[in-house]
Amino acid sequence: MTINNPIKTVSKFHYIELVYNLAKKDLKVRYKTAALGFLWAILNPLLMMIVLTVIFSIFFRIKTDQPYSVFVLTGLIPWAFFNLSLSSCTNSIVDNSNLIKKVYFPREIIPISIVTANLINFFFSIIILFLFLLFFKIRLTYMVLFLPVTIALQVLFTIGISLLTSSLNVYYRDIRYIVEAALLMWFYATPVFYPVTMVPERLKTYYFLNPMAGIITSYRRVLLEGLPPDFYMFLETSFTTLAVCLIGYVIFKRIEPVFADLV
Amino acid sequence: MAAIELNNIKKSYFIHHERKMIVKDIIFGFLKRKKVKEFVALKDISFKVEQGESVGLIGDNGSGKTTILKVLSGVTVPTRGSVSVKGRVAGLLELGAGFHHDLTGRENIYLNGTILGLSKKEINEKFDQIVEYSGIEDFIDMPLRKYSSGMFVRLGFSVAIHVDPDILLIDEVLAVGDQSFQGKCLRTIEKFKEQKKTLIFVSHDLNIVRHICDRVILIDRGEVAAEGNPDKVISRYWLFIGEKRGIARMELEDLTLIFNNGRIIFLWKDVEITKGLSGYTSLRSFVKWFDSTQVDWKVVERDEKRILARGKWRGLPVSQTWEMKICGEREISWNIEMEVTEPVNIAKEQANIMLSDKYTEWESLGEKKGTMPESFRENINDDWEKVYSTKAAKSFIKLLGFKSDGTEYPSVTFDFESLSEEYEANIINSNPAYKGRVLQCLKENNYSRQTYAPGKYNYFSGKFSVKPE
Fold it and tell me: Which chain regions cross the lipid bilayer (chain A) (predicted)?
């Protein structure tokens, strides 16, 4: 009893092109239908920033080393990237059923292309973030060189967890609602609107099991404080990220052969 | 070298009666077991296709043809068995895969091309050809949502065809698009054949299958039921489809008559001598032909010597009752009664039988005889070519039987004893899509008599005799 299915198209390189083209389609479609285009993508974090700034610098005082608005925006922009990616990836296999039923290609290309599209958006948002930094006269140090590493870690983690949720969602269609609910709670478990210094010391080991906590903290250290990411925290985050990626990939590949039958 | 090899493929689907929800499963899952039904789409399929071969897959709906194509294209993975496919596979089953309505034709060509496995460089090179082939130059920078469904399909087909695969999988695509585009598709497929590419062709149009394929595989309920020469397998298919709602069968020694949903098929020693539309009727109302093959039929009565079937036209307030009766030695009468329920315009009425293009000589009343033109008209849109025409009343038209390559074709006579003067009998060469010889009985109603009031009419009565030469 052997199953060998040596059906391949051209080279592995072709799949990179495919990811790129699908991501491009994603962005084009998004911006063609919405007149304000990219503005919508950045509007959400900006509005959140205003709301959170009003609440946490006027009503409840949260002490931060930098102006609260720029502090919270540094967390909100990466969070928006993560939030958007994960929620649109989760249903992506089901959404693209007409592709999956008709053409063969490695299915992970679908969530990866969605994350890529959101990553491109994220780059534009970062430019806006830099404008804020400039406005608040926060000097960038050469520690900004750690920014690509942090982004890479976040992309990896996002892809890993998206592989997991998107494939499970093919089996259990309510996974996406669970993910939506989880993201809401996840937001509070991540230092987006409060500094990580407010987390009690004894909880910190568990707290950083959440890779997003480590990732957002790193963004702040690199961009606002001019410090490199904390070594141990970064190590822990990398480790959990890799673990999630591995589990996500294995499960995705286990379910992949029946995608076409189930969607 | 085999381009495709399937060994003992089994494919089953598990059908859940309801969508699985994890929350529900956690709460109630332990209490009751989910009902899961196994559906076996392919039981045990093995076949080989050599490089450069064109193979047709035929069978009823749900027999598993499309599943086989899906396995070959890698879209679905077989439950058991092994697949080996050598070369680049492209399927014309995925017309417009990934097309997006908000993107322009141009953008969609790039997107769809990459999905089907073309690199950007290849698309750049082929772009103009793709656009030209699809014939939508003027719309190429418009969003797809402004396209008509025909344009959509043409664009999809055009991209798919330019993938330039080694193995081409075709699934019923010729059913879409207008006549001229269908002709274009057929020519492209023939070009692929000339280039010695491997072709797997799925269609319900047995005529096209016969035309394109070197070999035909008959699939029945997930198994290979017959395999071999197209003529043999296709006639086997007619025999084999059994007795369903719109199908009945009569046998008279070497001759088998099959009534199948508005067509009469003749088999002589198990080989089909009719072709394409076979024996059928057609009405011209306003500017459109309505064929009996597109009608819902029901066999009302059936015994060894007689079949009575009733068909109700869709889109016309007309129904016909056909009586096919054995009335002599290898003679079958064909009487048709037409019932009109609302006033309707009928300009022309036909009762035709389309026969194999292997027939070359014809004969008619009064020692009239001749040979059929050897070639068919080139253009698929051309009219059928009338070879001989006469008054039908008390006359007959006939195609002469012969023997060739060990197969024997009987003479077929279409006899019109009791028809009135208005009927005309024609011997015709069909257009190249069918490539058949047609014996036709035609009635043209002049303008004042085109409107039929509700009531019952004698549509036609005639007689076939099929005899060995």
Answer: 34-62, 68-88, 109-136, 142-165, 177-196, 231-252
Find the farthest-apart pair of alpha carbons in chain B and give their distance in angstroms, rounded: 87
Query: How far off is chain A from B19, nearest CA to CA, in Å?
Result: 7
A6, pLDDT greater than 60? no
| pLDDT above 90 for B441 | yes
Is there a contact between B94 and A103 if contact means CB atoms under 8 Å apart? yes
Whole-angstrom distance, CA of residue B330 vs CA of residue B252: 6
Token reading at A97 = 């059923």
Task: List B residues 59-78 in contact with A (Cβ-Cβ < 8 A).
Answer: 70, 73-78
Using CA atoms, how far apart are residues A97 and B364, in angstroms rounded to an integer?
A: 59
B243-467 adopts what CATH topology? Beta-galactosidase; Chain A, domain 5 (2.70.98)
Helix-helix angle A68-90:A147-171, to 10 degrees = 30
Query: What does pLDDT average to over chain A?
Result: 88
Handedness of CA B110, B115, B121, B123 (dihedral sign): negative
User: Widest CA span of chain A, in angstroms?
Assistant: 69
Rounded to the nearest 5°, which phi and psi values hold at B441? -120, 120
Residue A79 DSSP symbol:
H
**Maximum average pLDDT range among A164-168, A223-227, B119-123:** A164-168
Compute the distance between CA of residue A56 and CA of residue A63 in angstroms, rounded to an integer: 9
Q: Which residues of A touch B75 (CB under 8 A)?
A: 100-104, 260
Q: Residue A103's closest chain B neighbor by CA?
A: B75
Token pair in block for residue B446: 């002049």
- The model carries a pTM of 0.75
Rg (CA), chain B: 25
A58-93: per-residue pLDDT in tens? 888 888 888 888 999 999 999 999 999 999 999 999
Asked if A98 reaches chain B (Cβ–Cβ under 8 Å), the answer is yes
Contact B3, B53 (CB under 8 A): yes
Q: Looking at the predicted structure, is the pLDDT value of residue A28 above 50?
A: yes
Contacts of B103 in chain A (CB under 8 A): 25, 28-29, 32
pLDDT above 70: percentage of residues in chain B:
93
Where are any strands of DSSP class E within B372-454?
385-391, 395-399, 402-404, 407-409, 411-416, 423-429, 437-444, 451-452
* Interstrand relation of B361-364 and B368-371 (parallel, antiparallel or unpaired): antiparallel
Cβ(B5)–Cβ(B54) below 8 Å: no
pLDDT for A160-185, tens place per residue? 999 999 999 998 888 999 999 999 99
- Signed CA dihedral, A170, A173, A176, A181: sign only: negative
Interval B80-95: pLDDT, tens = 999 998 888 887 766 7
**Domain residue spans in chain B?**
2-231, 243-467
For B448, the enclosing helix (H) or strand (E) is none
Q: B84, A100: Cβ pair inside 8 Å?
A: no
B129 touches chain A (CB under 8 A): no
What's the complex ipTM?
Answer: 0.82
B97 vs A3, A102, A172: nearest CB: A102
Contact B409, B376 (CB under 8 A): no
B84 vs A contacts (CB less than 8 Å): 4, 6
| Residue A72, amino acid | V
Could you tell me the residue ranges of all domains in chain A?
A: 29-258
What is the C-alpha separation between B8 and B290, in angstroms, rounded?
44
Tokens of residue A214, six digits: 């480590």
Q: How far apart are CA B51 and CA A43, in angstroms?
A: 57
At position B422, the amino acid (one-letter code) is E
Would you put residue B335 in left (φ > 0), alpha (ψ -120 to 50) or beta? beta
Residue B75 has pLDDT above 90, yes or no: no
CB contact under 8 A, B78 and A3: yes
Span A27-39, average pLDDT:
75
Dihedral sign of CA atoms A148, A151, A155, A156 in order: positive
